[in-house]
Design brief:
The complex is a heterodimer of chains A (about 290) and B (about 140).
Chain A: H1 9-12, E1 20-21, H2 23-28, E2 35-39, H3 46-49, E3 56-57, H4 75-85, E4 92-96, H5 102-113, E5 119-122, H6 125-131, H7 162-168, E6 173-175, H8 179-183, E7 207-208, H9 224-234, E8 243-246, H10 252-263, E9 269-272, H11 275-279
Parallel strand pairs in A: 1-5, 2-3, 2-4, 4-5, 6-7, 6-8, 8-9
Helix pairs in contact in A: 5-10
Chain B: H1 3-13, H2 17-29, H3 36-39, E1 46-47, E2 56-62, E3 65-71, H4 77-90, E4 93-94, H5 95-99, H6 112-115, H7 117-143
Antiparallel strand pairs in B: 1-2, 2-3, 3-4
Helix pairs in contact in B: 2-4, 4-7
Classes of the chains: A alpha/beta (about 290), B alpha+beta (about 140).
């Protein structure tokens, strides 16, 4: 059962206004039948410090990753996660989290790999709830396990793999990491080897558009006009482009993927979750350094 | 390991996995406040880059005693928990205790499966920096 949409006029400008809700709307709809609120944070304990009443926790690392392979949880794993979280196939899921919804967007992307229809983000992230003065609770939610069906993951439509990325060089790509990671200046954190990648730089042809440029200081998304300016006027992307976004492990680029797909309405945008930790260690993979794509 | 770190390690390991997180949360709530002199001088504090959330720390040598100071935002309870554990085990302790502190200690709390090994890297990085700052302080003393 699907829950009504947030009529917020800001959202109406986006290509898919149905993918966002505001904090006041969420508060009004806390008890709406068919709605499940999910918190996904970078910090694994933040939910336990206090969460939106009724929200369940899905952790990007311990819940969404396969315990052994470098991959996402498999079909049985996703089904079990949905069932124990009380999410039905037709539930409206509202996701929110810390850090401008960075990890919530990652969770949303995984939900979409499994074709969950109605998934929305709380515009402004956890901060929006806090800034509105709404209460957080430590009370555990009442969860009735669901009958979520077994669904196959679609690794074609929204996900890109390394060989596809190699073949994609020359077509639009967005590197959403920090400028230092893009140029290759940062291969090692001070005093400590940076996780994963053996080489620094970026995939040839990728434009540098750090993910956080899509959000305002209060962590809400920038307006449709501002986003269009950023990705299209400044960086030359087009709505009908075949676009691949990447970062370090695919989390920050999920955020950009969400912006391009749902806020600007791009029909063909994929997230390369192998990202730099894979590309920067692949033998012979082409790399450019410096500020130019 | 020191008796204190050994005891704390046992305390964690005796708990079921879920409750280890609660214990870490308790630590995070008890991270000592940064003394005023450091609140006013953020440049003295070193950022631990490997932690996903910003955490800053500073080591001070007071004769034979090592003082450790940490600060991390309320929105980063895991990081605060790590800092609080290290504060309990290292603050006010001898140079020898800090200099020889077990680098593998973060792996001995049974937290890897509860929070992921990746997240434990932050705690290792804090230990690394505390020890390095201590060595710098000791070298400074030797040069004066």
């Amino acid at each position: 059962m699907s829950v009504g949409l947030d009529p917020n006029p800001k959202f109406a400008d986006y290509a898919h206004p149905e993918t966002l809700v505001s904090a006041p709307w969420l508060r009004e709809n806390l008890d709406a039948p068919g709605l499940v609120i999910v918190e996904s944070d970078e910090d694994v304990l933040l939910y336990d410090v206090g969460h939106i009443p009724g929200a369940v926790k899905i952790d990007w690392h311990t819940d969404l990753n396969h315990p052994v392979l470098r991959d996402y949880l498999d079909a049985e794993g996703f089904q079990a996660l949905m069932q124990r979280s009380g999410i039905k196939r037709d539930s409206t899921v509202v996701l929110y989290g810390d850090k401008s919804n960075w990890w919530a967007a990652y969770t949303l992307w995984v939900f979409k790999l499994y074709g969950h229809e109605d998934v929305r983000l709380l515009d402004g992230s956890r901060e929006a709830w806090k800034n509105a003065g709404f209460e957080f609770t430590k009370d555990a939610p009442q969860i009735s396990p669901s009958d979520y069906p077994l669904v196959e993951r679609d690794d074609v439509t929204l996900r890109a793999f390394r060989d596809q990325v190699l073949a994609h060089i020359g077509k639009p790509m967005v590197d959403v990491r920090s400028p230092q990671e893009y140029t290759g200046e940062r291969t090692h954190m001070p005093d400590y080897p940076q996780e994963g990648a053996l080489r620094g730089g970026h995939i040839p042809g990728a434009k540098s558009v750090p993910w956080a440029r899509a959000v305002n200081e209060d962590q809400t998304f920038k307006s449709f006009v501002e986003l269009k300016e950023l990705y299209e006027t400044t960086n030359g992307l087009q709505k009908n482009d075949d676009v691949i976004a990447y970062c370090r492990i695919g989390e920050r680029s999920s955020h950009t993927w969400f912006v391009l797909k749902y806020l600007l309405g791009y029909t063909n945008v994929r997230n390369y979750d192998g990202s730099w930790t894979e590309w920067g260690s692949l033998v012979g993979a082409p790399i450019n350094t410096g500020v130019n794509p | 390991m020191t008796d204190a770190s050994d005891a704390l390690s046992r305390e964690f390991l005796e708990l079921p996995v879920k409750e280890r997180l609660n214990l870490l949360l308790e630590f995070s709530e008890n991270l000592p406040e940064l003394p005023t002199q450091y609140q006013d001088h953020p440049e003295l504090l070193e950022r631990v880059e490997e932690c996903q959330s910003p955490v800053y720390l500073f080591v001070e040598l007071n004769g034979e005693t090592v003082r450790t100071y940490f600060t991390a935002p309320e929105e980063a309870p895991t990081t605060r928990g790590f800092a609080s554990i290290l504060s309990e085990l290292l603050d006010g302790k001898s140079i020898d205790t800090v200099a020889t502190f077990d680098d593998q200690f973060p792996d001995k709390l049974g937290l890897a499966e509860a929070i992921s090994p990746l997240r434990l890297r932050g705690m290792r990085a804090m230990i690394f920096r505390i020890k390095r700052q201590l060595q710098e302080k000791l070298a400074g003393v030797a040069n004066n």
